[in-house]
Amino acid sequence: MKWKELRIVGFDTETTGFNPFDDDRIIEFAAVTITVGREGRVLRVDPYHSLFNPDREIPAKVTTITGITDDDVADAPRFEEKVDEINRVMSGGIAVAHNYAFDRNFLSMEFERAGVVFADPFAELDTLLLSRQMFQDVRGHKLEDLCKRLDVILEGAHRATNDAEACGRAFVELARRRGAPDDLQGLLDWADALGHPPVNDWIAVDPRGRIAIKAVPDLPDQPTVGDPVEHHPIWLHWMTMARERRDGRWAWRFPESLRRWCDRFLRFRASGATKVAPKTFGPGDWTIDSLSLPLP
Fold it and tell me: CB within 8 A of 188, min separation 6: which ones?
């Protein structure tokens, strides 16, 4: 599969706070669907945008950063009213965000509250991680910094539509300049990004488009078949290191391709871009730590 034949969906959220697992909510969502040509240049841009009423006051600090006020969202829909539209926009393409895990976890929690399954995209790519990988000799890796290096226009940072389009365009331009492979799996390896799991007996994409647990070993305290894998990071970590005796020798219990996928899933989806240094109050300095994930 050639990745340029897929839709590139740059997306971004603005939220009431920094912790989706502590009942912070999305107040703005934007996704920009980008079509690219064979030469890797943008041919078409189709935006999607909505404000949401979070059923709570927006903190003054958030309004200062985003410019979104309580009056702006007073008559806006609740998130659950738009989940089907957002699912259609996000599924079936390459989803791109800057600090992907942060926005993805907010979407996951909003979908769970609405009782709707979030269909996992074909591929998930983080331009923050890609910036750190491609520009190791520089310090600034915020979206504004990346856009300046790539001559991508970003006006009105910290509004979802502007950030979403700039993020998608930055990925396309970086892929063009740095010679990203044409095939999808090659792109995933080039960007250290996440795709669907390899064919295996344990994890698969279910009929609703969600990456879920297909089977479990005959051991105690295992997750339930059909559970989304993102709910079981500890189990995924165990799969990367589990061994068993075969022919008098210790061998890996699970195939190498699956162990590599589990490791990439945990690094990409669960841990986000956590820093060792203490967090500040700057919006670019907050991330989702793996220890904050809900345990089964």
Answer: 123, 194, 195
Q: Residue 13's CB: how many other CB atoms inside 10 A?
A: 24
For residue 228, give the DSSP letter.
Answer: B
C-beta of residue 136 within 8 angstroms of C-beta of residue 112: no
What gap in Å lies between CA 293 and CA 296, rounded to an integer? 10
Cβ-proximal residues to 48 (8 Å cutoff; 6+ apart), any chain: 30, 31, 32, 33, 85, 86, 89
Q: Please state whether beta strands 203-205 and 211-213 pair in parallel, antiparallel, or not at all (unpaired).
A: antiparallel
pTM for this predicted structure: 0.86
Architecture of domain 3-198: 2-Layer Sandwich (3.30)
Query: Are the beta carbons of 269 and 194 closer than 8 angstroms?
Result: yes
pLDDT band for position 158 (cuts 50, 70, 90): low
Q: What is the pLDDT of residues 58-92, one digit of tens each?
A: 999 999 999 999 999 999 999 999 999 999 999 99
Q: Is the dihedral of CA 74, 26, 129, 170 positive or negative?
A: negative
| Alpha helices (H) along 91-224 | 100-114, 127-134, 143-150, 160-177, 184-191
